[in-house]
Amino acid sequence: MVLGKDGHHAQIMKGVLDMCLLATIVESPNYGYGMVQTLNERGWVIAHENSIYPVLKRLQKAGFIESELVASSSGPARKYYSATPDGEQILSFWSADWRNVRDGVDAVLDGNVAKKGTKKTAKKAVSKKPSKKATKKEGKQ
After folding, report:
1. Which three-class secondary structure string do you get for the chain?
2. CATH ID of 8-139, from 3.40.50.2000, 3.40.140.10, 1.20.1250.20, 1.10.10.10
3. Domain-by-domain residue ranges, the chain?
4. Which of 32, 73, 83, 132 is most deeply buried (CB count within 10 A of its CB)?
5. Is the pTM of this model over 0.70?
6. pLDDT in tens, 7-48
7. Using CA atoms, how far apart are residues 87 and 138, in angstroms rounded to an integer?
């Protein structure tokens, strides 16, 4: 089997792009190309800026981010995205869920047996669910 031919990598990346983009927006409001640069600097290479806009649209429709046009001295106005309170809350939930999944996958790949304390801690982190409003918005995506 040739690596990358089955689309596995793309599916993994697609599955976490929402969370990673939201994390960069929560950290600091930004525009599309700026987010791509941030992700690239942190080791996640995105081939083209256009691949993030459907995700941003979905996050905005869910009420997790909002946007505004800001004048730019180096060209046309840029659409800056910022997180809403629901976006910050859902990111906390997604982050805890991701860490739980990551730890479980690592344990399986490494052949480790999950320690009782680790599993309990992970469950506790995920049990802190977002508001009903945020959960309803996430379900409508």
Report:
1. CCCCCCCHHHHHHHHHHHHHHHHHHHHCCEEHHHHHHHHHHCCCCCCCHHHHHHHHHHHHHCCCEEEEEEEECCEEEEEEEEECHHHHHHHHHHHHHHHHHHHHHHHHHHCCCCCHHHHHHHHHHHCCCCCHHHHHHHHCC
2. 1.10.10.10
3. 8-139
4. 83
5. yes
6. 777 788 777 999 999 999 999 999 999 999 999 999 888 767
7. 10
